[in-house]
Specification:
Rossmann fold, six-stranded mixed sheet, four-stranded antiparallel sheet
Amino acid sequence: MRRFAHAPTAENPSSSSDVRRTDRDTLARLWPYLWAYKGRVILALAFMVGAKLANVGVPVLLKELVDRLAPQPDRAAALLVVPAGLLVAYGLLRLSTSLFTELRELIFAKATEGAARSISLQVFAHLHALSLRFHLERQTGGMTRDIERGTRAVHSLISYSLYSIIPTLIEVTLVLTLLATKFDVVFAWITLAALVVYIAFTVTVTQWRTRFRREMNEMDSKAHTRAIDALLNYETVKYFNNEAFETQRYDEALERLRVAALRSQRSLSMLNTGQQMIIAVGLIAMLWRATQGVVDGRMTVGDLVMVNAFMIQLYIPLNFLGVIYREIKQSLTDLDKMFTLIEREREVADAADAKPLLLSGPPSVRFDQVQFAYDPARPILHGVSFEIPAGQTVAVVGPSGSGKSTLARLLYRFYDVQGGRITVNGHDLRSLTQDSLRRSIGIVPQDTVLFNDTVAYNIAYGRPQATQDEVVAAAQAARIHDFIAGTPKGYDTMVGERGLKLSGGEKQRVAIARTLLKNPPVLVFDEATSALDSANERAIQAELAAVAQGKTVLVIAHRLSTIVHAHEILVMEAGCIIERGTHPQLLAANGRYAEMWRLQQAGHSDGA
């Protein structure tokens, strides 16, 4: 049973972008992941400062080298000695700059990769902790794209901030100090004015064009989502000859992406042109004043060379400031989306005082006046009450939409009840830890979805630490061993995406095998044999009946012939229990169950 019109909650993916944190908040959220490697952070910063000190020293040595080479008759004897020493020092400073830079990146790499790993792992774990409602409403393509961008954003933020922005600020401070103390303060003011105008222009224009970049990313996510959805539903596309339709929808998404990308590129070109103009004006002003100083005798040729070298060293990284700032802003946006996933509230969460469920045998399960609705406007269960005594089997039958499968979801605590309660051995499910509860329950679902891995992996998923012999025994009990053994690769056979290489019956038998392998005290069979033929159904029913001995079992069934031996049968309609009793009692009552039985028996006779 499926419900799509869910009420909006804190987990609703559509609301994830409604609340946007500031860039400072996002950085503050990232900082603890980096500070976990505080030793490496401090050492990397020290190497960064060392690299910039060496870099600033290069033009100073270059000035000395040029001045020493200037014709000076009184120092002709030293001409071949002093420049040689300066050349060696110049080379060592250049080497130091590269060496300190590489050491910084090497030292900080562990912090960067560790932070990215921690965040990605936290997102992955948190997504598994969110409720079924979130996962039914999510768009897998767009969400995986957000996670991928968020992980990449960690590397980008650290790379651009630690390796570009902070070093440039350190270098600017050192250069301004040198210019102001060694020459007149006008040099520092010209440099500072050019930098302020450049940064103000870059930030303003980049802020303006951020919306184009964000729109482009949104279009990219939508195009990616459409492609993923179409590929995941490959068979459905083929069934209805809708290849051209899906191609057209994807093309429409790509066209919107193209238009957004062109807008983004035009604004980028405007930004780059403006930056080059500001750099050119500042450079001309600096060189004009330096040249005038040489002509007036206030400065040497070496001073002119040093000023020019300083300007080149400053403007080369500044030339990429627009790109860097844009990437940092985009990385902050991407990281914010991933942090939004992490901070999404869990609709179903363990109580602060939740206790583990400890069972020494099969428990009793009780539904007590349970009320539930996926959407407040459409109630599903209306005060449903029944009990599954310890070690007994209770079956639930009824038409589609009557609320049968919802009982299994509530027992697994995929959702919390909105009225009444469900208890296991007298303990309200909401007072138990979800992990211990679900470890005690095994389910064979109506819709079996398998991992794109081997048959052995999918069966062993019921108990990952199981031995190969135990996996084979479970497969034999589920009557699928002969099929597996008959394939060329046996238990190493790949089942394909979502198990699509197997038939419906084969997938269902794999699901039965992994539930048998789990061997929990509570079993739920949700149309467990609906995809099997009659011969296999009878054989597996016998196996399931044997396995159910001494376990508490909830059977959700459509074929009444599969539940005739249940200790109690419940007939549901429109979210209410309208009849209950054993098979003979319900037939004798000549009510809704008896009517369903006659219809199925007649259908079986006609089919025969």
